[in-house]
Amino acid sequence: MNTILNYFKGVREELSKIVWPSKQVTINHTLVVIGVSLAVAVFLGVIDLGLSKVVEQVVK
């Protein structure tokens, strides 16, 4: 039982050492992730559309 308590005391101690990012940094990083995700989605959509047209012409 003592080992379990020591474990959770250690966890609490380590959690208190964490330096969390500010709200603004979190928002900025979130916007970057959303922007990159949208850019990749558009890029892959264009590639997919182009390849679909090529296959359509070959099968025709």
From TrEMBL:
What is the gene name? Answer: secE
Span-the-membrane segments of this chain are 30-51
The species is Candidatus Komeilibacteria bacterium RIFOXYC1_FULL_37_11
Topology relative to the lipid bilayer, per the entry, is: Single-pass membrane protein
Similarity comment text for this entry: Belongs to the SecE/SEC61-gamma family.
Report the Gene3D superfamilies cross-referenced here: Preprotein translocase secy subunit
| Entry-linked InterPro entries | SecE_bac (IPR005807), SecE_sf (IPR038379), Translocase_SecE/Sec61-g (IPR001901)
Instruction: Offer an example of a GO molecular function term for this protein.
Output: protein transmembrane transporter activity
What is this protein's function per UniProt?
A: Essential subunit of the Sec protein translocation channel SecYEG. Clamps together the 2 halves of SecY. May contact the channel plug during translocation.
Q: Which GO terms describe its cellular component?
A: plasma membrane
Give GO BP annotations, semicolon-separated. intracellular protein transmembrane transport; protein secretion; protein targeting; protein transport by the Sec complex
Its signal peptide is: none
**Pfam families, alphabetized:** SecE
Q: How does it assemble?
A: Component of the Sec protein translocase complex. Heterotrimer consisting of SecY, SecE and SecG subunits. The heterotrimers can form oligomers, although 1 heterotrimer is thought to be able to translocate proteins. Interacts with the ribosome. Interacts with SecDF, and other proteins may be involved. Interacts with SecA.
Q: Which UniProt keywords apply?
A: Cell membrane, Membrane, Protein transport, Translocation, Transmembrane, Transmembrane helix, Transport
Cellular compartment(s): Cell membrane; Membrane
Q: What is the lineage of its organism?
A: Bacteria, Candidatus Komeiliibacteriota
Q: What is its main location?
A: membrane
* Name of the protein described by the UniProt record: Protein translocase subunit SecE
